[in-house]
Amino acid sequence: MKNLPHKMSLARIYCGLPVRCLRLRQLQRSAVKLTATVPPRESDPPRRWIASGVADRDKLAAKPVPKHDWNRAVSEAEKIVGYPTSFLSLRWLLSDEIANVALHLRKLVGSNHPLLRTAKILIYNGKNNMQAWGLIVLLISKAVGHAPTIPDLEQDKSAGVLQSQRGLAEITEMIRTAHLVHQGLVNLQPLANAGNELGSDSDTIFGNKIALLSGDYLLGNACLQLAGLRNQSLIELISSAVRDLAESNFFGERDQQNNPLPSRPVESAVRATGSGTEVDLSFGDTVDNTQPLSLAGVMGNPEKEWALRHILGAGSLLGKSCQGAMMLAGQPEALQRRGYMFGKHLSLAWQACIDLEPFGSEQLPSGGRFSLVSAPVLFHLDHDPTLYDEIQKGLVSVDNIDFAKVHARVLHGPGPERTRALQKKHSLAAMAVLNELPPSDARTALQNIILAMQDI
C-alpha cells in the first residue's frame, strides 16, 4: 500500500477491498435494520395521546405529525388512500374543456375579477385548499370499512376503499368547486338599471361568462357521475346538499354584490348565548337531513347564525358525502348518520380555523378584507352591538365599510377567544365520532388533520 499514489480516490480504494470486507459491511447494515425493528422497552418514553373529550383516550399511531403541520398531515393521508383525489390532479385537467377555460382565465389577469381569487383559493397550499375534501371522504370510507356483501370487483383492495366511494369523492370536489366558481360572478349593474346597456366593461362580462359556464360544466359532470353510481338514496342525499348550497347564497342580508352581511343582534340572543350555555345546532337535520334546515330562532343569535350559514354553504355537502360513502359500503343507517355528524362538525371546525386567520396579527394589511359574517365578528356584535352601525354602511357595498376599524375592535374584544372555544367544541365533536371507529391508519390520519387545525 505504501506504493499507492498519495491522492488515490476513495472509490478506487473501496473497489480494491477484499470480498470478505464487503460482506462484513452488508452484515453490519442488516444488523442496524434489525435493531430498528426491536419493540420499545418499558423504559422508553410513552407515545403520544390525544384528548378526545371522552372518558377513555385512544392511542394514535407511532408517527404523529407535528402540531399545525397541515401540509404534512394531508400529504401522509393521501398515501393511505392511494393517491390525491383532488379535482386539480384528476383527468379533468386533461380534458379540452378545462384546458380552454385555463387559457381564457389568462385574459382576466389584471382585471381584478373575483374569479381569479377563486382560482387562487383552489390551488393555495394551506387550510383553504380544496384537496382535502375528497380526501376526507376516502379516509372516512377506509376507516369504517365495508360490508362483506360488497363484490370483489367493486373493491380497490390496494387502497382499502370502493370504486364507487372514489367516484363520490370526485363528485364532492366537483360540486364544491362549481359552487366556489359560481360565487365569482359579479353583479354588473344595480337592480334599478337592470336591462340597460352594460357599457364597455368587457373584462368583467367575459369573467362572468367564464365563471358561469365553467361552474355549470363542473356541476353537470358531477350530476352525470352521480347518476352513474345508480343509487337512488345517494342521489337524493347529494341533491339535498346541492339545494343547501343554493340556499346559502340567499341566506341573511347582503349588499348589491351579494356579499353577506350579519344580521342585527337581538337582546334575547345576547342573554341566551352567555358563557357556559350550550346552543342547539341541530336545525332539524338530526331527524331527517334531506329536508330544508329550520331557520327558527337563528337570525341575531351569533352561534346559530354562523353555524347555519356554514352548514348550508359547506358542512351539508361534506357531511352528506361522508354519510353517502358509508351508504355505498352497506353500513347500518345509524353509522351513516354518525358519518354525517362527523363531516358537519369537521367542516365547522375547519371554518372556525379559517375565520381566525385575519385576527392573528395586530394590523390588517392595507386594503385587506375579511368575512363580515365570520365567527369573531358575530361574537363581537353579540358583545358590543354598537359596531353594527359600521356594518350598516355596507348595505349598498361592503367597500363602504372601514375594515381596519372593524378589525381593531374585534381583535380587542371577546370574539377571537370565543371562536377558539367554538373551534375546539366542533373538533372534539368530530373526534368523538372517530373514537367510535376501530383503530386504523385512516382514523389516525383524520385525527392528525384535526390536530393540525388546533391544539386539542
Strand order of the largest sheet: 1-2
Rg from Cα:
26 Å
**Count of alpha/pi helices:** 17
Number of strands: 2
Q: Tell me the series of helices and strands, N- to C-terminal.
A: HHHHHHEEHHHHHHHHHHH
- Contiguous low-pLDDT stretches (5 residues minimum) are 1-28, 30-66, 86-94, 125-130, 268-276
Please describe what this structure looks like:
The chain is mostly helical and 456 residues long. The chain has one domain: Farnesyl Diphosphate Synthase (Orthogonal Bundle), CATH 1.10.600.10. Helices cover 54% and strands 1% of the residues. It has a two-stranded antiparallel sheet with strand order 1-2. The longest helix has 27 residues, at 202-228. The relative contact order is 0.11.
Brief overview, please?
The chain has 456 residues and is mainly alpha-helical. 54% of the residues lie in helices and 1% in strands.
Label this structure with key terms.
globular; two-stranded antiparallel sheet; mainly alpha; disordered N terminus; 456 residues
Strand and helix map with partners:
Layout: H1 10-15, H2 19-36, H3 70-80, H4 96-105, H5 114-123, H6 131-144, E1 155-156, E2 161-162, H7 163-182, H8 202-228, H9 232-248, H10 267-272, H11 302-328, H12 333-356, H13 375-383, H14 388-391, H15 403-411, H16 415-434, H17 441-453
Antiparallel strand pairs: 1-2
Helix pairs in contact: 3-17, 5-7, 6-7, 6-11, 6-17, 7-8, 7-11, 9-11, 11-12, 12-16, 13-16, 16-17
